[in-house]
Amino acid sequence: MAELPLPAGLCASTFPAKLWRLVNSPRVRSVRWDSRAQGLLIDRSLFERELLSPGDAQGPAPRPFRATRFRSFVRQLHRYGFRRVPGRAGSAAPGDAGAWLHYSNPCFRRDRPDLLLRVRRWSTQIDNLLSLLESQKVLCLVFLCASCDV
């Protein structure tokens, strides 16, 4: 299968773009699409050897992520809205020996590369929401104080 291109407007150095290239690369064996092409299956031990090992010249991609620990990679998945699919770990295909971890994000689907533009880092969104709530709280306090003639 040929590698699918990134949608126009998506910076190639972002986490979602790197993940898209990996899951669609025929050279990467540790990350693949689930059977519905709406989630990721990750073989942890192979992923660590193939993509996180420092200085590993045998891997298909030269350290695509800054993370060197699987836990840090999973933290990145969570920051970008990926969630673990419960009860879906196991073999990815008949004959596979390893356990595969299953992660999903509604905007990360093989048939809809255009949705990649909606995969955003959640910390920025949460910070914006908290700022908005703080400003509204201040407005509410000002309103309450004005209505009480304080």
From TrEMBL:
It is found in: Nucleus. The keyword rRNA processing does not apply. GO terms for cellular component: nucleus. Keywords: DNA-binding, Nucleus. GO terms for molecular function: DNA-binding transcription factor activity; sequence-specific DNA binding. SMART domains: HSF. SUPFAM superfamilies: Winged helix' DNA-binding domain. Its main location: nucleus. Residues 11-122 form the HSF-type DNA-binding domain. Belongs to the HSF family. This is HSF-type DNA-binding domain-containing protein. It comes from Taeniopygia guttata.
